[in-house]
Design the sequence.
């Protein structure tokens, strides 16, 4: 069954996007904002942990697995969960093998369409 | 008497000295030979280690490139989605669709790159090879170049078979490159997928392998002339990026899947390689 882009579900939660590729990050922030979410963003894991520390309203961490500055997206997700046990996580990667190392977190493989991203966000945000 | 005894003693001493020197020399010779053999083994180990290092580096590079390609593809794919929603782009639907199809092809090729880059633990799945053919042909065309015409024939009722799907791309790539590489001027590669009952016509029984129902992946390459009467099965299995015979890698894949490989010339201007994979009576899982 083909899912049309018009079927992309919206949301209102707060998401932190962590992505070092500027083109990808800006587009993902734009798409999520367009879907109704409130969006923060960070370049790497260290900046992301600062944002999480200063904002206890973040509902979901959306992070690339491959990040610079010696902290992977998986390391970030685990550190963030220690600080915020109820934080939801959705990993993304251009190499599915990298995400397979963290079975406790769901992931979405690049490249993804807008509607797929929207659906995976809703899945990850389920209580 | 004492003269003879003295002479005997002198001869005995000289003989002992000569024997001792000979022993010393032979012992030294043994040590020299051992050292030379060690050095030779070390250089072979070094070459093998260098080949392994080279392959590991290539694998890491492929995985990195594929990862970055996927990030770039994400940007294009999502922008296409946004364009389709943009009323101002309504007149460009055909172009947007053409771009989307090209992106889907690029995504498939990137997945092939990742499969080639990663050494994975074998996972056997029941598949119908016909489902894998379209993306396989894309991969082979990219590897063999546009000058090679590729023709496919797929039987409509192809049986399922159990294979390591992740390794299948690599094996098929080896098979195509090795088959084409055996020709001086390869022109056309024909890929056939069909069922076989192990009869003589399929060559399976002639090679001494077990008869039985098989799925055959047959690659036949024709060209100006063949290199020799029969392509040698050289163990150059790691030469993934060359066009020399790499049938050994295909044989290893075949054995893992409990099948076998058969290679035969067709006249003087073509070569046929057939990969026999046992029929599986379970339902496909992929």
Sequence:
């Amino acid at each position: 069954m083909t899912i049309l882009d018009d079927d992309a579900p919206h949301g209102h939660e707060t998401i932190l996007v962590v992505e070092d590729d500027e083109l990808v990050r800006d587009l993902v922030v734009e798409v999520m904002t367009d879907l109704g979410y409130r969006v923060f963003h960070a370049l790497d894991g260290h900046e992301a942990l600062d944002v999480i520390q200063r904002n206890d309203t973040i509902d979901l961490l959306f992070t690339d697995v491959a990040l610079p500055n010696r902290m992977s997206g998986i390391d970030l997700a685990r550190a963030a969960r220690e600080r915020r046990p109820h934080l939801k996580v959705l990993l993304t990667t251009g190499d599915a093998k990298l995400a397979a190392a963290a079975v406790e977190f769901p992931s979405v493989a690049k490249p993804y369409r807008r509607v797929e991203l929207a659906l995976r966000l809703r899945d990850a945000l389920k209580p | 008497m004492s003269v003879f005894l003295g002479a005997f003693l002198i001869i005995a001493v000289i003989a002992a000295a000569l024997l001792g020197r000979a022993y010393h020399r032979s012992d030294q010779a043994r040590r020299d030979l051992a050292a030379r053999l060690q050095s030779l083994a070390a250089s072979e180990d070094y070459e093998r280690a260098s080949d392994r290092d080279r392959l590991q580096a290539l694998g890491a590079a492929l995985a990195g490139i594929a990862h970055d390609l996927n990030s770039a593809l994400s940007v294009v794919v999502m922008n296409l989605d946004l364009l389709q929603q943009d009323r101002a782009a309504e007149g460009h639907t055909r172009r947007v669709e053409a771009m989307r199809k090209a992106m889907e092809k690029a995504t498939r090729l990137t997945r092939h790159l990742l499969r080639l880059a990663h050494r994975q633990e074998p996972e056997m799945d029941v598949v119908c090879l016909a489902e894998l053919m379209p993306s396989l042909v894309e991969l082979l065309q990219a590897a063999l170049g546009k000058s090679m015409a590729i023709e496919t024939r797929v039987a409509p009722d192809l049986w399922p078979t159990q294979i390591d799907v992740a390794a299948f791309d690599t094996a098929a790539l080896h098979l195509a490159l090795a088959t084409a590489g055996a020709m001086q001027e390869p022109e056309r590669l024909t890929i056939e997928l069909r069922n076989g009952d192990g009869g003589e016509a399929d060559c399976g029984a002639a090679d001494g392998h077990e008869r039985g129902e098989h799925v055959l992946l047959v690659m036949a390459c024709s060209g100006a002339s063949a290199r020799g009467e029969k392509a040698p099965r050289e163990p150059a299995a790691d030469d993934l990026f060359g066009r020399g015979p790499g049938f050994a890698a295909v044989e290893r894949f075949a054995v893992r899947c409990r099948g076998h490989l058969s290679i035969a010339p067709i006249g003087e201007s073509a070569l046929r390689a057939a990969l026999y994979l046992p029929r599986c009576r379970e339902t496909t899982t992929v």
The radius of gyration of chain B is 30 Å.
